STAS-like domain-containing protein (Bacillus subtilis), 102 residues
Amino acid sequence: MGSVIKVLDHVERCYSNDDGQKIQTKIKSAFYNDQKVNLSFEGVDGVTSSFINTALIDLLEEFSFDFIKTHLSFSGSNAQINKLINDRFKFEVKKRSELVSC
């Protein structure tokens, strides 16, 4: 069973690390219960890299990228949000795989 986390139900904007931390806490709670999460950006016009890094990228500290890919989906997002999420995950996954190879 999955859950929908509507970003604007938990933060006023997607701007700071503090905003991201609130969302990350919600996602982790679901992940620890092996629940899938749909993160809804409905009503959000844009996000910052600080928000994405804290809300999503920091999940890589506790969950594998494969787990995140199978347990996290997005809805209500726009091109800017999609690009930032995609770019940040690509960069971090590549960086972390290079660190493991060393």
About this structure: The radius of gyration is 13 Å.
